[in-house]
Each structure stands twice: as C-alpha cells, then as structure tokens.
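Summary of Year 1 activities. Much of the first year was spent building the evaluation harness for sequence design. The harness presents a backbone, in tokenized form, and records the residue chosen at every position. We chose the following record to illustrate the format because it has been used consistently in internal testing since the harness was completed.
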C-alpha cells in the first residue's frame, strides 16, 4: 500500500461507520490506477534512474502481504485490527514527517514552486477526477453503482490530492537542485494537508444530513 493511500484511508476512517463503503472501494481502485499509470510514465521517461533493488524490496513486501492472506489459520483480521490504527494514525504520519521534512525551510513553504504545486494538486485532482468520471458516465462508458454519487467522487478526488509517494519519487529523479526538491516537498505536504481536510469535510457533509 503506498504511503499516500494509507493517509487517505486514515482520513476516510475518521468519517466513522456511516461512511459509504462504495466510496472506499472507489478510493482504493483510483489509488491503484493512479499509481500504476504514474509508475508507467516514470519507467518510460526515467527508467534508467530507478533503483531496482528498492523496487524489488517493495514488491517483496506486497507479495508477503498477499501470501499471509491465504495462509491457513493465520489471524490476519486480528492482526489488521490491532496494527491498522497504529500504522494509520502514528507510524505513517511520523514516517511522512521524517521523510519529507528533510531539506524544507521557511523559504520552501512560501516559494512559488510550493504554492503552485499546492494549487495544482488540490484543485487539479478534484476537477480532473470529477470531470473524467462525469464524462465517462455521461457518455455511458461506465455506470456508477446506485449508492455512489458524483459528489462523493469529488470528495475522493480531494483525498487523491494527498498523494506523496510517486510524486516524491518523480521529483527526486527529475529535479537535481536540492533547493527545488525542498520546495516540492513543502508543496506536497501542504497540498496533502489541505486535500485531506477538504476531502473529510466534503464526505462528512452527506453523513450529517
């Protein structure tokens, strides 16, 4: 599971038991598709700069998770119930702060790069994902489930702005300047926080009715 997906699911978990399960499924599907296409682009344009050993270790962890799910009598659900809140609300946030805070200064936070990136990710994710879904439904390319609305897809689009993992990898291989990398990290953190708040408020409103 990418770091950003864990963050998005953490925000979704804060919605409580009344949250629409279809929204969670759409969020998971979108995250997988988003990262998949991003990695394809990354491999095409920056394939010679990728660390194969690091990629292999990530795939190994994913494979281990898949194997544990089919091991007989392994208490997967019990382990997930214990570790999921700990990872979502403590381990992941601490890791993100420790990983992204390196190289960030006050100048990075107020830089044009950080501000532009924040605006582009927060607004772009919502508009892009919502518009694409609306067009696909309007043109009858896809059909939404009866319990999933376009307005909820917009909320998922907001949560998608919390993406950090692939964006960080692309910035590390595409940007040589450490100063600009710090600006990018600042923009990613700010956009993730704002996107998380917007997504939570957006998806919480229908539950309050």
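For this record, the design step produced the sequence shown next.
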């Amino acid at each position: 599971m990418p770091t950003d997906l864990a963050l998005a699911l953490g925000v979704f978990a804060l919605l409580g038991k009344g949250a629409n399960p279809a929204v969670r499924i759409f969020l998971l599907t979108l995250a997988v598709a988003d990262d998949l296409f991003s990695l394809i682009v990354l491999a095409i344009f920056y394939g010679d700069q990728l660390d194969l050993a690091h990629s292999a270790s990530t795939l190994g962890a994913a494979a281990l998770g898949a194997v544990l799910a089919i091991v007989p009598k392994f208490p997967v659900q019990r382990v997930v119930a214990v570790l999921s809140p700990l990872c979502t609300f403590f381990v992941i946030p601490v890791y993100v702060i420790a990983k992204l805070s390196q190289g960030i200064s006050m100048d990075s936070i107020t830089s044009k790069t950080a501000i532009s990136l924040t605006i582009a990710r927060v607004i772009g994710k919502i508009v892009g994902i919502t518009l694409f879904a609306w067009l696909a439904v309007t043109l009858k390319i896809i059909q939404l489930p009866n319990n999933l609305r376009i307005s909820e897809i917009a909320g998922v689009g907001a949560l998608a702005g919390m993406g950090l993992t692939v964006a960080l990898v692309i910035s590390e291989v595409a940007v040589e300047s450490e100063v600009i990398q710090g600006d990018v990290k600042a923009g990613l953190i700010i956009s993730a926080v704002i996107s998380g708040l917007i997504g939570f408020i957006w998806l919480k409103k229908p539950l309050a009715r």
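The chain has nine helices and no strands. Quantitative recovery figures across the full test set are reported in Table 2.
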